[in-house]
Amino acid sequence: MGTPSQRQKQYASYQAMRAASSVNEYRVKKISYEYPETALQQKERAAARKIRTRYGIDRMVDDMIQEAMAKGEFDNLSNAGKPLKERPVNPYVDTVTHRINEVLINNGYAPEWVLLEKEIREAREDLRNSLKIVREQLGPLPLTKEEEKKWSVSQELLQSKITAINKKIDNYNLLVPLLKQQLTHFQLHREAHKILTEGRSRNRAELQQEEQQPSEEKERQRMFSSTWNIFRLFRMYR
Description:
By secondary structure, this protein is an all-alpha fold. The protein has 2 domains: 4-70; 112-236, no CATH class. It has helices at residues 4-34, 39-70, 95-106, 112-135, 145-157, 159-175, 188-198, 204-212, 215-236.
């Protein structure tokens, strides 16, 4: 409609719109050809495959259970009709580690950190007992110079054992799953001071009576007592 010049303008505008539309279609086809699937589409396709696989496995397991029930394989079970036992779960340990430890314990084994903790506990108790043995041979506080020397020597004899225990404690702290279960080093001076002040001691009157004995008899008893104490110490750590 309109004059020839107006119709020519309308036709030119129409051709321009068609050309622009053709260019857009070409660009879309080219991009689709170069990138057939976007990353989102690939994720959706993989998720759909995963769902199909999961439900396929679920159906297969369900069929196997139904077949076993039909054969009577679930009849007369020892725990049939009883509630499941509650199993303590540590929220700070991952499920895989918890299951592995459970399997080991059920088969008579224990995790390495459990065995280490037992060894450390027993070694600590042995060290304390060794100090108590020496303390029982000494008089009440304050100690004499000879008693102080004997007490100091007994601690020096245990130093190598304490170093070995503290190395075990370091290994244990690297293996134990919970931070609150970690152990501190064995502090000899602290344990020795506690046993010295609170431990059992000999009566000072008995010690004075020994001092009044003939020197030969007193020396014989002292040597016997010292030898026996050293023998007990080394026997504990043999």
